[in-house]
Amino acid sequence: AALRRPDALLQLLCAVAEERSQDYAGATIGHLFEPAPQSGSAPNTPPPPPVRLGGSYANPNPNENADPNPRPRRLPPSLSAALEAEQAVLREVLFALQGINGRHLSLEPDSDSYALDPALPLHPGQRDMVLCMAEGGWLYRRVATYVATRAGRPAPAALPATLGFSALEPPLLPAPPGGLAAQAFCAALQDELNEFFRFLAVLEAKVQAGEGDASEGAPPAMTLHKLYVYLQEPLRKLKLMATICDAVGTLKGGAIAAVLHHYARHGDAATRAFLRRLLRRCLLPLLEQLAAWLEEGELRDPHREFFVRANPGVRSEQLWEKGYAFVDELFPSFLGPGVGRAILKAARNPKTRTRKA
């Protein structure tokens, strides 16, 4: 009769479920899965231990078996030596980024590349990271050599770490006639190198903090992997500056601005902003010369880098037609040739009939 009535069937199932739950109350998981005793077995056999789920049991008293005087955990000798070698290489990588040779990482003059001591207990992947970061030292030396050469200073050589940072400042010499635009370009590069030095000082503080943590048994705050991540953006800037230095070479005036404008047409926003910052610095001397030429009719060009040049052998009566010439290779090409010819003609007024430069 209960099968014919759905409500009676539901009440029957609920009663059975309640009876089963009372039977299983207080039983462990291991008792639920305990096999039925076979015939002939001992009646007082202790039940097997309960089944472990998800690892070990939770100890209700965690401090019951704790050692009152715990000892600091000691690393295996091989792992300890690897950590010491990694911390030593971290400092030498920072030295290499400033053009300073270290004990284990130095610049080989024959191959013009950095070499790492093969006796260091480093993983091959760690060695590759060290050499990739040391490439920044090679790029720094290239940019610093270019800036020093155009500024009239001796190029920085590879220095040992015992000399310190003050050895990187060579004595100033008279500047060669490279032009105002070249001097502005080198000043902008030097500002970027100074910003790079400030970033290295922050990394040096992190490395020193990591050495203190390692001496206390804590994991170091700075590792090769972290340093490699931190140096990605500075290395990209150094590589870009070295490329620009090779492209500019010994150019002067508006030719430098033309090269920077060409490289500034880049799809990456950070690269474009960086190159435009250099371009603005180089255009300042050109704008001052252009303002003096257009507003006063005066040619202020002591280094012969302006795209308008005076012809000293022209007589006064021919000054209008032949007194000044347009120099194509010194004109910023991104302005267009028509703009340059218009600038040359715009200053032809009565003031320019009397030579002022």
Annotation keywords:
357 residues, mainly alpha, two-stranded parallel sheet, two-stranded antiparallel sheet, disordered C terminus
Give a quick rundown of the structure.
The protein has helices spanning 6-23, 29-32, 77-96, 124-150, 180-215, 224-230, 232-248, 254-264, 269-296, 319-322, 337-346, and strands at residues 100-101, 105-108, 113-116, 159-160, 308-310, 324-326.
What does this structure look like?
The structure is a single chain. The chain has 357 residues and is mainly alpha-helical. It contains eleven helices and six strands. It has helices at 6-23, 29-32, 77-96, 124-150, 180-215, 224-230, 232-248, 254-264, 269-296, 319-322, 337-346, and strands spanning 100-101, 105-108, 113-116, 159-160, 308-310, 324-326. The strands form three sheets. A two-stranded parallel sheet has the order 1-4. A two-stranded antiparallel sheet has the order 2-3. A two-stranded antiparallel sheet has the order 5-6. Helix 3 packs parallel to helix 4 (124-150), helix 4 packs antiparallel against helix 5 (180-215) and helix 5 (180-215) packs antiparallel against helix 9 (269-296). The chain is elongated and about 125 Å long. Mean pLDDT is 76; it is low at 24-34, 51-58, 72-77, 158-177 and 350-357.
